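Hi support team,

I submitted a single chain yesterday and got back a structure, but I'm not sure I'm reading the token output correctly. Could someone confirm the output below corresponds to the sequence I sent? I've pasted both exactly as they appear in my results page.

Thanks,
R.
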Amino acid sequence: MTNQMKVDRRGVIRGGGAMVAGAMLPWAGAASAAGSGTQLHILGSRAGPSVGSGSYQTSYALTVGDALYVVDCGYGATEQLVRAGLRPQDMRDLFITHHHPDHNIELGTLIYFAWYAGLEKPLGIYGPPPIEAMTKSYLAAIKPDIDIWLDDIGHAPLGPINVTELSKPQDVLDDGTVKVRCTLVNHPPVVPALAYRFDTPGRSIVFSGDTTPMQSLVELARGADVLVHEAIYTKDGVTANLTLNGDARVDSSAAGSAIAGNAQKLLDHVLNSHTKAEDAGRIAAEAGVKTLVLAHTVSLVPGVTDGMWIEAARKHFDGEVIFAHDLMVI
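Hi R., thanks for writing in. Yes, this is the structure output for that exact sequence:
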């Protein structure tokens, strides 16, 4: 038995003044039945490069029949893929939205363990520059270890790794099962940053990547079944301190992981390069999507519940809203 969490509808908020339920669940969220055989796996739902919390960094998997596609690979992505009951060696393609460590730190790790587990087909890797140079560096770093296994246990060599760099809105992939498009989004100071749309036989899923509110994303998500959008929760007058009042901790004097740096600069980055939950709802409404998934979430105020996140998004959106947790299947 795997540890997949297939959530029911007790935690969803819809129109008509419905209340947040889900008291028996550790979150308030719900999953739309795929029906088409396409499933979205939330491998990691956490934003930011610090480690040691109860959730892992940003990563998603799409399964379409026996085809596996991975979007982003922050810390924990490889382990979470296995915990989700998926096989690394089934990965066809890996897509990176932008080059921050909570989205790409396990690029080499995921390649290695997919090969170690038996990856035989060519692997496609897509992302903004310098993804090609990064991949070559990772392959060079793991080559001595791979060479040892070839002789020691008779493992097959690593197959082709095909890297495609993306820096403009374009069609990315059509493998006969899935069509993928990308567009540019805004995540200063990281340029370029990408959002992706996957159209499968019967379902369409869009990943915002990290971004401020963008019309380009509205157009990419137009009429999609699911929009996975990053989000922050904040209130007027939030000021920086050593904990940023919520998730983004910069106090490196305490035990555990932290983000070393200037608290005010970190707060400015979070506010100026991300999207408020209510704006994510507005984008979902304008795009006409059926389901909004709030993921890669950062709260700048304490005590924010799943239901509060959902209510914020529902200020502008009356469709299904899900607050993402690790190992959800949507």
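A quick pointer for reading it: The first helix runs from residue 77 to 83. Let us know if anything else looks off.

Best,
Support desk
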